[in-house]
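Incident log, structure service

09:12 report received: a user says their structure output differs between two submissions of the same chain.
09:20 pulled the input from the user's history:
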Amino acid sequence: MDDVKHACEERMKKTLAALKDDFAGLRTGRASPALLDKIRVECYGQKTPITQLATVSAPEARLIVVQPWDKSILSDIDKAIQKSELGLNPSNDGKVIRISIPPLTEQRRKELVKGAKASAEQSRVSLRNIRRDGLEEMKKMKDSGTPEDAVKKAEDELQKLTDSYVSQINKVLEEKEKEILEV
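09:34 re-ran on a clean worker, output below:
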């Protein structure tokens, strides 16, 4: 029983971590180096994350600076940022790339909140699927002779665990919504 519950908890932790990672890449009105984490740059014959090619920092609230370790790939990084879905316009001075983060429009904020809610709902669905898988495993144990009251207790614990992770997802969503909507 504990093995099933532990395996479910590990999967739930990964679901929550994936949502947080997804939210880190969502553009708010504030500059954050995490904004560029998902961008891959075509250089040296392969796609490489920006963080493996350059130092990415946010020295000001509305500015991200990308300083490549190899100046020859500056234009590759510039192109990758322009092609990304973030809608950012980098400026390249030959040494570093500066990206000023424009304030978000009200409509764009609402779109971002809608996307965040959809991601959170997808994570909640994943949690429920993990719970369902765990309950099926426990049902098999009941069929193979495990006492019914032990199975019922484990099922209740799994439900409490699921509820705990759902509330954590709701809290993460609430924080991200607040961050997106603040002007």
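09:41 both user submissions now match this output. Likely a transient worker issue. Closing.
09:42 reviewer note: The radius of gyration is 22 Å. The longest strand covers residues 54-60.
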